[in-house]
Amino acid sequence: MGTEGRMEIAGLCDRCTGCGAGDSDEQTLYDLAHMDERTLSSLMQDSRYSLKELHEKAREHAQRRFSRLRGTIESKRGELQDLKEAFSYRLLEELAAGGVVDELLDEYREDESRRRLEEELAAMDQMEEAVEPEDIRDSLKEYVEKDLIEVDGEGVKITPKGAGRLARYVLRRIWGNLAAAHAGTHATKEEGFGMSDGFASRRHEYGDEFFKIDMEKTLIAALEKGKGRAGRIEFDEEDLWVRETVIDTRLCVGLIVDESGSMSGDKIHAAMDISLALSELMKRNAGDRMRLFLFSSRVREMGCRDMLNVTFSGGTTDIRGALKRFRTAVAGERAEKQVYLITDTEPNCEDGKYIGFEKATLGVLQEALVYQREGITLNIIMLDSTPRLREFASVLAKRNLGRVFFAEPKALGKVVIEDYLRTRKRQNRKRAV
Q1: What three-state secondary structure class fits 67?
Q2: CA gap 126, 244 in Å, rounded
Q3: How far apart are CA 136 and CA 130, in angstroms?
Q4: Domain limits at 416?
Q5: Cα distance between residue 373 and residue 337, in whole Å
Q6: Same domain, yes or no, for 224 and 205?
Q7: Beta bridge mates, 291
Q8: Does residue 343 fall inside a structural domain?
Q9: Is 405 exposed, middle or buried (0-12, 13-18, 19+ CB in 10 A)?
Q10: 125-159 tens-digit pLDDT
Q11: What is the pLDDT of residues 282-326, one digit of tens each?
């Protein structure tokens, strides 16, 4: 890689990822985000293996708690010893006086204070210096005070501030793993993608392409000129109007994520990471916009960082419905449109009803044809390689209706970020010509 490429990467890192201190906080946030169940009890069980930083803090709280407990034990032992010595003194006095000690022994056996102390000490002696839920809660207070997380009852949520820190951290991780790091972006005076016909028109000039002709305005001009001529419209060169070419300075990206049951674990976590990283990367291009949709048998749109705290629905896979939802949602936007659909399952339902692979595939092909007509770039990323998925990919490829990638979950970030950067670089080169 040349000097220019290295400088470009450094510039992107400085502007986008905020490299610096605080990695331990960000690693803890990352580990929290990747937990299937984010409750205090699950944190207690899993922290030793997957949340080492948090576990160490919890152990410190447990040690301090146990130290206080040892002080309490010694205090209670002293209290019990005093009670026993007082009874012994009374017992000796009674014996010396020649009295009967049976009533005194019964009093000792029935003494509630003694029995309570002995039971408490027996229970305390059985305690081990282990991490308890209260230690996990105490160890989380630091992150709560920094406004990185919220603890709501037994549940733990990542705050908007925490999501921002996590997005920069995930982007830095993905960027560091990119093999083809030269596929970066270049600064341009006008950022964005593609060209489109604007609403303004002007008179035709020599060299203008005929497909740019504004038919409506041209027809009106010819009709106005030919008033009084019955049954015939004549066109002259001066009647021709063309639409002005407008450079779109925006890219509208749809990230469409399968949330069906088979996506649980590493797959949905990888999709969560790319939602954070891509939205963070696109922030450096003010005109670009990303929209996130989750789908199974239903489709729902949410903020790019809200995926951190949702409960995934499971269910069947309606790919056509998801693609259609994005297309209709951005129909009015003047921008280059590109979709990354992430799934590990072939289509099998429509409108909430299971219809099987063959019928569902036909529906996806119909929607992909609409995408092609409307100029929306379709990228489907398969996180599995079952025979049905390969058949589905083959059908799309043969009809040239979209690009299909097969990737492991750990490579998802690299695939999407590289493609986004490569697309932007290619478009900027076109604009420079």
Answers
A1: helix
A2: 83
A3: 11
A4: 251-432
A5: 12
A6: yes
A7: 254
A8: yes
A9: middle
A10: 665 556 677 777 888 888 899 999 998 877 889 99
A11: 888 778 899 999 999 999 999 988 999 988 888 899 999 999 999
